[in-house]
Amino acid sequence: MKEMKYDVVVVGAGIAGPIVARNVAKSGYSVLLIDKKPAIGTPKQCAEGISIKVFEKYDIPYDKRFINREIYGAKLYSPSGYELELRYKEASGVILERKVFDKMLAYYAAKAGADVLARTEALDVIRKDGRIAGIKAKHEDETVEIHADVIVAADGVESTIARKAGINTYAPPHEFDSSYEYEMLIEGYDPDLIHLWFGNEVAPRGYVWVFPKDEDRANVGIGINSDNPQTAKYYLDKWLKENNIPAKKILEVNVGVVPVGGFVKELVKDNILVVGDAARQVNPMHGGGMAEAMEAGTIASKWIVKALEEEDLALLRNYTTEWWETDGERLQKVLKVRKVTEKLSDEDLDLFIQILSGADAEKIAGGDYGEVIKALLKHPKVILSPRRIKLLRELL
Amino acid sequence: MPEKIKVIVNEDRCYLCGGCAGVCPTLAIEVHSSGWEFLQDKCISCRICISACPVGALSAEPLEVSE
């Protein structure tokens, strides 16, 4: 059996893992980043949309090799077909090519000094003298013992290593969404906008999305509550059929579950940290988790470097504290909003999208939700409904 | 007391996405790069994995109890 020794081992090369590996390696510590997939980034489980702000914020090159398309806003569709368009003059987001993006993030980690091993599956943790001293992994047919002072579980929604290390990442099924997506040829939708369809019959608790990757090519997907008796695939195929969209030019099928119902409380146990989807650090409103993974990875790597510098692993616990005081607090508020929107009927969705004017759309685009809710509260059809007033007030 | 079950996978439908392993409360499912694995001794027959699968690749059959 082969043995290795590093300061830090990172399990999982999605988004959070390579960010941690890159940042820690930059500070001069030895890091190994492993991923069970033979090709990092493949298959993807993602709609691939991300805010344009993340490139500068997390020091990621704005590289055309992994950017399919710049996006200028969004269009929302209510159950009865009312539309609300939010369009910016400048590009507000991009649709990535995750298979290239993830691999390039691992490449940046490697360039910063980290070792990277694809097709290396973490099997279990190694316990020694009452603490976790590393992980046992398998690279092709060879068992490897990787000893490390710090172990980072960035192993996605399965969070096997985090759970085997004793971090409680479990959540009940209602706190996950099941999602299913085709990358396919599709026409008739403005390719400069992302498109979102809402409705309890369309996508229970979630939405259908069209994220354009080209003039006539897009990720067309759906997320629904994972404890639904029907599958996500059933709802997406139904939507395509009802909208007369032919599904016969399909380039990819992507599936997965998304943790949208809350966040792992203790992100650190001794010398183990959990980041990204494994820590359920996902925006509960839209189910996107890339920016959240980048933020968590940045905070985690800062405390790993400090702990190694000061030779005091107790400092790792500050990752939990800092995350909960910053992004955690923000996401808790988003979760509260999500729980309220879950109660909206199709009639509510129709009405709200119908009465939001262009000026209100500007406010939504600017993130000024409070003003939008105040505008909705003034509308006669809202004033006459105590239930709607109650729901909207919960959002303020 | 729920009926004891064995979870089975339809390999032609499964994408090895790991969702079932992620929602399993007892780590009774492992999704390796090479395949899907069910650990009967850990399963508590809650069926969460079956409903969470985005493509309906999982199903249950009653577990034969030895007399």
UniProtKB/TrEMBL annotation, chain B:
<dbReference type="GO" id="GO:0046872">
    <property type="term" value="F:metal ion binding"/>
</dbReference>
<protein>
    <submittedName>
        <fullName>Ferredoxin</fullName>
    </submittedName>
</protein>
<keyword id="KW-0411">Iron-sulfur</keyword>
<keyword id="KW-0479">Metal-binding</keyword>
<keyword id="KW-0408">Iron</keyword>
<dbReference type="GO" id="GO:0016491">
    <property type="term" value="F:oxidoreductase activity"/>
</dbReference>
<feature type="domain" description="4Fe-4S ferredoxin-type">
    <location>
        <begin position="5"/>
        <end position="34"/>
    </location>
</feature>
<dbReference type="InterPro" id="IPR017900">
    <property type="entry name" value="4Fe4S_Fe_S_CS"/>
</dbReference>
<keyword id="KW-0004">4Fe-4S</keyword>
<dbReference type="InterPro" id="IPR017896">
    <property type="entry name" value="4Fe4S_Fe-S-bd"/>
</dbReference>
<feature type="domain" description="4Fe-4S ferredoxin-type">
    <location>
        <begin position="40"/>
        <end position="63"/>
    </location>
</feature>
<dbReference type="Pfam" id="PF14697">
    <property type="entry name" value="Fer4_21"/>
</dbReference>
<dbReference type="InterPro" id="IPR050572">
    <property type="entry name" value="Fe-S_Ferredoxin"/>
</dbReference>
<dbReference type="GO" id="GO:0051539">
    <property type="term" value="F:4 iron, 4 sulfur cluster binding"/>
</dbReference>
